[in-house]
Amino acid sequence: MAERNQAFQPLPAAVGTDDRMPRCCPTHPDWATLTQHLVDEFPEIVIGNIVREVGRAKDAAEQVGLDTDDALVTGELIARHQLSMLAGRMTEVARLDPERHARAGVPSSRDRE
Predict the structure, then answer these.
(1) Does 93 reside within a domain?
(2) pTM exceeds cut of 0.85
(3) Is 59 inside any structural domain?
(4) 49 is in which domain, residue-wise?
(5) What pLDDT was estimated at residue 7?
(6) Spans of the chain, pLDDT less than 50
(7) For residue 98, is it within any domain?
(8) Does residue 109 fall inside a structural domain?
(9) Which residues of 40-73 are buried (b: 16+ CB within 10 A; e: fewer)?
C-alpha cells in the first residue's frame, strides 16, 4: 500500500494553474488503493457511490488513451471533484450563465423568420 502523507497538503491539480485539488498522496499504485483512500477521506459518502465515481473516472481516463500512471492521476482528480460536489464540499459553478454563440454559415432562428 502507498505511504500516505500524515500532514495533509494540497498538491497541484494541474501544471500552470493556481487552483489546487487536495490530494492525499503524490501517486497511487493502483485503482484499489485510490478507492480506499477516497473511502477514508469521504466518510459521509456511501462506499457504493465512491466506487461508482472512481469507475467513471477510470473509464474516462482510459478512453482518452492515458497510460496507467497518468490515468490514475487524472482519474483521481475527476473522482475527487465529483465526490466533493456530492459531499457538498464544493458547488458546481460551470453552468452559471450559458451563452448562445452564432455559428458561421448556420442561419439563426431569427434569420429564418
Answers:
(1) no
(2) no
(3) yes
(4) 30-87
(5) 47
(6) 1, 5-18
(7) no
(8) no
(9) ebbeebeeeebeebbeebbeebeeeeeeeeebbb
